Amino acid sequence: MRDAEKRRQLGTIYRKAADEVSEIYAARGCPPHMTEDKFQRLMAAGAHLWAHMGDAPVILIPCLARRVMPPREALPKAVADRYDAHLAYQEQIRGASIYPAVQNIVLACRGLGLGTVITTNHILYEDEVRAVLRIPADIATFALMPLGFPRGKYGPVVRKPLAEAVFADTWGNAWTDTV
Ligand SMILES: Cc1cc2nc3c(=O)[nH]c(=O)nc-3n(C[C@H](O)[C@H](O)[C@H](O)COP(=O)(O)O)c2cc1C
Predict the structure, then answer these.
(1) Across the chain, where does the E strand assignment appear?
(2) What does the pLDDT read at residue 69?
(3) Which CATH class is domain 4-62+98-164?
C-alpha cells in the first residue's frame, strides 16, 4: 500500500494500538533473558517505529481468508465428538499458513537492501484498518510491515547460541553440542 493518505491513517491506527501495547511491555518490565540496557533500546526502537509508521514509503499488510469449518452434523461422529478440539486447533494454527511467507518477505527485503519488520499491534484495531483498506470481513490481516531503505546502520544480526533456544529430547533438558 503506497497511498500517502492511507499510510497516514494506518500510522495513526498503529500508534493507538502500540501506545496500549507499550504500556503492557512497560508494566511487565525487563524480561529475564535481556539486559536492562537492551530492553530500553527495544522500547526506544518501538517508540520510533510507532511515531513514524506512516512515513514508511510502503506498508505491506499480509492477509488471509478465514477457513470455514464444516458444520458438526456434516462430519463423521468420531470427528464431530472432537469438534471443539478441532476448532481450537484451527484457531491455534491460523497464523501458520501466512507467517512463513511473512518471514520470507523479511529475508527477501534484506537481500534487496530494504528494511522491514513484522508488526502486529494494529490487529487490536483491525476493523479500522479494514475500513481504510476496504478489506472484506472474512479476510484477516496478520501483519503490518513498513518497507523502505534503511536510514542508519544496517549491520549483521546476532544469533544466540543454540543451547539458549533449544532443549534436547525433553522439555527442560539442556542442549549440548554433543547431544
Ligand atoms: C509476531 C511478532 C509481532 C510483532 N509485533 C510488533 C509490533 O506490533 N510492534 C513492534 O514495535 N514490534 C513488533 N515486533 C517486534 C519487531 O518485529 C522487531 O523484532 C522489533 O521491532 C525489533 O527490531 P529489530 O529486530 O530489527 O531489532 C513483533 C515481532 C513478532 C515476532
Answers:
(1) 58-60, 63-65, 139-141, 145-147
(2) 94
(3) alpha beta
